[in-house]
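User: Hi! I have a protein structure encoded as tokens and I'd like to know what sequence might fold into it. I'm fairly new to this, so please keep things simple.
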């Protein structure tokens, strides 16, 4: 368990220090239901962080055991309901957003593979929120839960305070899809960006990509940078991570499908 915690904590630190690739995958059916996943492939990151990881694991690294863990947040929130009840209403609401999600964490130190996948199904796309913020919360909880036996780091609810500076809304009505970002707190958003000032060189190559899949062919889309699939039912839009942090609306899109 301690080894899992060290691996996850290394991931959470390194994710801010080297170029990372994030992808948001959305699949929508005719009735507006579907599934969403937020993926992170940190294989290159794990390779670059190998020395730091080795120092943290010590002799344990020699075992090079594969970590393959599934976290079901509905079960986790039920288990921690008494602790959660002591939090502010805003913090409780933030954790409540994770209830339908599951997170698969896979790490193999020997082959330098590291993948995180946060996913959920939904009945209506309008029920979704800011998946990137959900991922940050889920990763923090996942890492601390994995290390629940090592003191303060084992508190699964620590460091989850604070409200998100943005709100993302999704709608799908009458063959039209929209992804709209509302900036709730400009000052807090600026503080988030300022906190990355010393890391800009490392984050320069980081990307944030959305892959959206629809039940019909796309007639038109608001973004000129979008790349379409061969069947015309999907598109990919990629921006720099720092660009996204500076202006979260860069991934906002409007899509009209064929009838």
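Assistant: Happy to help. Inverse folding works backwards from shape to sequence: for each of the 259 positions I chose a residue that suits the local structure. Here it is:
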């Amino acid at each position: 368990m301690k080894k899992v915690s060290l691996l996850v904590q290394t991931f959470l630190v390194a994710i801010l220090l080297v170029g990372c690739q994030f992808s948001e995958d959305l699949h929508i059916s005719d009735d507006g239901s579907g599934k969403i996943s937020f993926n992170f492939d940190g294989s290159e990151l794990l390779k670059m962080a190998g020395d730091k990881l080795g120092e943290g694991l010590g002799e344990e690294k020699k075992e090079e055991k594969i970590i393959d863990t599934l976290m079901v947040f509905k079960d986790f929130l039920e288990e921690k309901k008494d602790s959660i009840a002591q939090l502010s209403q805003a913090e409780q609401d933030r954790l409540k957003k994770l209830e339908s999600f599951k997170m698969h964490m896979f790490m193999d130190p020997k082959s330098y593979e590291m993948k995180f996948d946060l996913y959920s199904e939904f009945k209506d796309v309008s029920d979704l929120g800011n998946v990137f913020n959900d991922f940050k919360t889920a990763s923090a909880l996942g890492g601390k839960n994995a290390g629940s036996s090592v003191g303060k780091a084992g508190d699964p609810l620590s460091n989850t305070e604070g409200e998100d500076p943005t709100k993302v809304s999704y709608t799908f009505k009458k063959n039209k899809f929209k992804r709209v970002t509302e900036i709730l707190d400009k000052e807090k958003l600026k503080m988030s960006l300022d906190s990355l000032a010393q890391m800009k060189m490392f984050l320069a190559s980081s990307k944030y990509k959305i892959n959206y899949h629809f039940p019909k062919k796309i007639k038109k889309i608001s973004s000129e940078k979008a790349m379409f699939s061969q069947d015309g039912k999907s598109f990919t839009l990629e921006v720099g991570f720092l660009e996204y942090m500076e202006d979260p609306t860069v991934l906002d899109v409007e899509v009209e499908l064929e009838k």
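A useful reference point when you look it over: The chain has one domain: 2-257. Feel free to ask if any position seems puzzling.
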